[in-house]
Amino acid sequence: MPLLIVSLWSLGSFYGWIASNIVAPPWVVLKSAWSLAESGVLWHHLSISLSRAGLGLLLGGSFGLWLGITAGLSKLGEELIDPSFQMFRAIPFLALIPLLIVWFGIGESSKILLIAAGSAKPMYLNAYTGVRSVDRKIIEAAKIFGLSRWAMITEIHLPAALPYLMAGLRLSMSMALLALIGVEVINTTQGIGFLMLQAQEYFRTEVLIVCVVIYALFGLGTDFLVKLIERISMPWRRAHKERT
């Protein structure tokens, strides 16, 4: 499909069906990408964006994972955490931008915290659902065999919840990317979003397309990473597919 799109795009640009001031031709986009990479501008902004997204995902994902497991394992934890988090989940994370700017200014702190807020929600929901969905018969059998509380968490609850945790990680990465795009087009002087704003001001559609492709590659790369983690952490799935 990407090759088909690029082929049609190339034909439309070559024969003039697509105006170059609306959508730059593929060869112009490639030339612009090469120029940005060769000058180091692209790598500088890319490294800033990756560090923002990675740190925000680490903070938000870890926090959401901890809250979800705590609420899923404990009735008291569920009563204390779940209602408050459900209210927080209903708030669009972009609506927090003005408040975070007032509290933390327009520096990196507010940007990273906004990405963390966006990525915490899906991780919490999937961790909570995964821990709560463990078969009660397995838990009762573990109690009969005398497993300690910690052993039950590490050997029963977490392995059973792994498919949900992987789904939560995939969604958290997607939300981190969406939040990254949001924070990088508001009060920033570095990052891929800032590069897009500069290109928009000067009507450089080739640079805009380069930035959009980079965001798309972000998504593709994170999906590949989650699949790799799934293969390592859940080898029984691969064994089941081989048998079937």
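the 2nd protein, sequnce then structure:
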Amino acid sequence: MGFTIPRVDTLLAPYAEKSYQKYVDEYLSICDNGDKNKADEYATKKVYRDFEQGFQSWEMAFNSVGSSRGDYPFIAISFGIGTSKWETMASEVALKTRMGGQGKEGFKRPVLFPKLTFLYDGNLHGKGEKLEWLFDVAIDCSSKAMYPDFLSLTGDGYIPEMYKKYGKVVSLMG
């Protein structure tokens, strides 16, 4: 049993924007200087930390709650083609959280769930493209934690065809 959360980066982005606005307001209510740049820096760091804590809690929950049969829920998330500030931040933090592993300091290990699927689009992630840096983070994560899996949206086959034709991603579970 399990489920897939497709395009988790685009799913979480509107909530990150709301949190960002809340943190900007919080900063401006505390600091009398009204410095918008410092408010932006403060709020962006807080949203980044929210993402970190959220992905860490997902990993802890999904890898520590087994069923009576001794198995774990199979949960998968896909991400990588969102281009906004919050979408790319969500993708980056998901990858960096996986690379960091779970457990006590000095004994951290990568976990299995949620299964990470990086959506690769050569027009976004290819050499010299806007999100090449994010693809590099995904490759680094893969070298350290065996995930993410990569799903090409620019190759041949059913999934790239659907993406090219409709602009929609078919996110796989396994």
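Helices lie at 8-30, 36-64, 85-100, 122-125, 132-145, 158-166. Residues 36-64 form the longest helix (29 residues).
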